[in-house]
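Human: For the file, kindly provide a plain-text protein record giving the amino acid sequence and the backbone structure tokens, at your earliest convenience.
Assistant:
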Amino acid sequence: MCRHVFMRKELLNSLIKNSCEKLPAESCGFLLGNIQSRCYEVLSFIPVPNISKQSQTHFTMDPAVSIPILTNATHSILGIYHSHPTAAAEPSSLDTSTLWHTFPLYGIISLQNADRPHMQFYEIKKAAPISFNKLSFESD
């Protein structure tokens, strides 16, 4: 069982740049790619507007944008991502109570250290008890 995530460095930089452009709000969107034996290869991302009224500490994906993405059979959605503008790349209590747990990947980008943004991926399992597993990650 692989449980590893791979993303090209250029794509990671593009995702971080997009998230920085949304500050002070959290960014959010979908991660697209391939999965084989629980090894994940992130090939692209689709940003979705955050329509939360508390967008600096929470994200709500705009349904008008996300539903067409979710229903498009040509997209191979691995999971979602969002940023933490002032917190670590670790799941918050809101993150662990998400309804997005049915996707294999849950990516969090920490922007709390502007000079060193950090991304981490998780699998969130909604079974009693709720748990999350940190996955190994690399970019070239």
